[in-house]
Amino acid sequence: MRAWTAGAAAGAMTAFWGASASAADMVGQPTPGAIDLQPGVTPLRHDAIFFHNVILLPIITAICLLVLGLLLWIVVRYNKRANPVPAKFSHNTVIEVIWTVVPVLILMGISIFSFRLLFAYNDMPPAYMTIKATGYQWYWGYEYPDQKIGEFVSNILPEDEAKAKHVPYRLAATEPLVVPVNKVVRVLVTGADVIHAFAVPSFGVITDAVPGRSTRPGSRSTVRGSITASAASCAASITPSCRSKSTP
Q1: pLDDT tens, 1-24?
Q2: Run of H or E residues at 152
Q3: Kind of pairing, strands 129-136 and 184-191?
Q4: Cβ atoms 176, 156 nearer than 8 A
Q5: Residue 229, domain member (yes or no)
Q6: 144 and 178 co-located in one domain
Q7: Are 243 and 133 members of one domain?
């Protein structure tokens, strides 16, 4: 029975990882069957993925395995049958120092990479151009102040048109937002009615669109092609309605 259970678990894991590996990552939109983060097209997004995959995941995995091992060891070693006469002590100074100091050291190590990434997100270099994005119910309005281009409306692309153009429905837009490659773009995000959220996963950018206030995320795309963005917070949670396109 134990061998059968182990074999079934191994087979399930093999099928799971095999299925996820067979799904090639799609840039700028979700990948069916994928389990990793969306590929990034900006330096900040690459840094965030590195922080998650290389720093956080190994630490989380090691802690989970350590705790699981300790639990199993305690269950086997100190159950009533194996240890009929329990020990009388209630404190162990060495162990208490270890489980206080080690977590502090782990958090200090994480904070080095975390603060470095946080400062990078807040270190806005001089922008090549500025775009104003205004959230409405239920669409986005875009404006290019530097180029004297007035606001134009970007709605969700109807399903039949999305299928005809072979673009993802509910992510494709009637009027894509166009930004240059390898240039820093500053986006002034605000809301006209309720609180929305401007999110571009491949850029590693998400910020609230609050009426009466402008937030200013910045990004620099290094990849040409279509990148999907979405409205994803509060009243805008059901209407992803814009797509940004990186062009030379």
Answers
A1: 444 444 444 444 444 444 444 457
A2: strand 149-154
A3: parallel
A4: no
A5: yes
A6: yes
A7: yes
* Residue 126, token pair as written in the block: 């001089």
Full residue range of the structural domain in which residue 222 is found: 129-247
Q: Is 199 exposed, middle or buried (0-12, 13-18, 19+ CB in 10 A)?
A: buried
Q: How far apart are CA 37 and CA 3, in angstroms?
A: 34
Q: Which residue has the tokens 């900006």?
A: 42
How far apart CA 98 and CA 66 sit, in angstroms, is 14
Q: Assess whether pLDDT exceeds 90 at residue 47.
A: yes
Q: Are residues 111 and 159 in the same domain?
A: no
The answer to whether the peptide bond before residue 140 is cis (omega within 30 degrees of 0) is no
- pLDDT tens per residue, range 81-139: 888 888 777 788 898 999 999 999 999 999 999 999 999 888 878 888 899 999 998 89
Helix axes 57-77, 93-122, angle to 10 degrees: 160
151 and 221 share one domain: yes
User: Which residues touch 77 (CB under 8 Å, ≥6 apart)?
Assistant: 83
Residue 32 lies in a domain: no
